[in-house]
TrEMBL record:
Catalytic activity entry: L-alanine = D-alanine
Superkingdom as given in the UniProt entry: Bacteria
GO biological process, one term: D-alanine biosynthetic process
One MF term in the entry's GO annotations: alanine racemase activity
Presence of the UniProt keyword Aminoacyl-tRNA synthetase in the record: no
Name of the protein in question: Alanine racemase
Length: 348
């Protein structure tokens, strides 16, 4: 088998949810954001694991994702859709018992016209200018929407990964002013907001990345490990090049291992000549370009070449890889391709 192996630690996932649940305080419900296929790890697998751990509310980006999570969870848990109610969604929202977070007057109108008795929530913009109704729109909509008993009113923080960013307090103030006295459960915090403290929690937190072991949840247990098999080993002489466009030249005689895994598997090409693979505790530099399905590693210093090397593991997490690639852990996770053999540790 030449595919890499992606190992997903369900006990670590559940433990991260429990830790964020403790951080959220006793009166606050801790939901779980499982959009983008559970941040690339498998929405059904992630949702079932977290439901088992105690999560009763889940968030996805679009109705189709919500239907898949409903399929995995069965009836009972609440599933909210950040993208709200798009044209043509009514049947799916109803069939899968999803709660759209209505983002605009247009979506509110669509909801009340096509499914007047169905559950819904509302998303407000508190300054990020991405999704949700602004204060003036909300003033117009509130008298129509509040009597219909929304399940939840939420907003989203733009900079919650930077605790001292003044934007956090500004958005908190803006959201508080918009929801004051509304009598509906409210939510503002994702992972970053959960860690900012109780003032940001309102009635529900809805962490995503922290569950999967990513920043800014520094105490998170790592959830994924990625191991790539060696397909071939060769010796190159001083001055020979390795890989497309010859971006690496052997400074001395070297032994090069070619591994299965490339940018089609989410190993970003910007990692070319910039990251390290690991044989247990021994670092082995990636040399040359990352190709579509392959990458090349300098293993000259290993006494013998192992069957596989780790790209993500105890010595190098998703955020380390993200730093090397000039991106964020979220992109590393959601880019993970469909070609890996997926191995699951722990769980019920
Ligand atoms: C993705 C997302 C979340 C979860 O954010 P994390 O930073 O992954 O915890 C919460 N709320 C909204 C609106 C989102 O888009």
């Amino acid at each position: 088998m030449a595919s890499g192996t992606l190992t997903i630690d369900l006990d670590a996932l559940a433990s991260n949810w429990r830790a964020l649940n403790r951080a959220s305080g006793a009166a606050v419900q801790t939901a779980a954001t499982v959009k983008a296929g559970g941040y690339g790890l498998g929405a059904g697998l992630v949702a079932r694991t977290l439901a088992e751990a105690g999560a009763r509310a889940f968030f996805v980006a679009i109705a189709e994702e919500g239907a898949a999570v409903r399929e995995a969870l069965g009836p009972g848990p609440a599933i909210y859709v950040y993208g709200g109610h798009m044209p043509g969604d009514a049947d799916l929202l109803a069939a899968a018992d999803l709660v759209p977070m209505l983002n605009s007057i247009e979506q509110v109108t669509r909801q009340f016209e096509t499914m007047p008795d169905a559950p819904f929530g509302l998303q407000l913009d508190s300054g990020m200018n991405r999704l949700g109704m602004e204060a003036a729109e909300w003033q117009a909509v509130a008298p129509l929407a509040l009597p219909r008993r929304p399940r939840l009113i939420m907003s989203h923080l733009a900079s919650s990964d930077v605790p001292n960013d003044p934007m956090n307090r500004e958005q908190l103030a803006a959201f508080s002013a918009m929801v004051e006295g509304c009598g509906v459960p409210c939510s503002l915090a994702a992972t970053g907001g959960t860690l900012l403290g109780a003032a940001y929690h309102f009635d529900m937190t809805r962490p995503g990345i922290g569950l999967y072991g990513g920043r800014p949840f520094a105490e998170a247990r790592p959830v994924v490990r990625l191991s790539l098999p060696v397909i071939q080993v060769r010796d190159v002489a001083e001055g020979e090049i390795v890989g497309y466009s010859g971006t690496w030249t052997a400074p001395a005689p070297a032994r090069i291992a070619t591994l299965s895994g490339g940018y089609a598997d989410g190993i970003l090409r910007s990692l070319s000549n910039r990251t390290t693979l690991w044989h247990d505790d021994i670092p082995c530099p990636l040399v040359g370009r990352v190709s579509m399905d392959l990458l090349t590693v300098d293993v000259t210093h290993l006494p013998e070449v192992p069957a596989a090397l780790d790209l993500i593991g105890p010595h190098q997490g998703i955020d380390d890889l993200a730093d090397q690639a000039g991106t964020i852990g979220y992109e590393i996770l959601t880019a993970l391709g469909g070609r890996y053999a997926r191995q699951v540790l722990g769980g019920a």
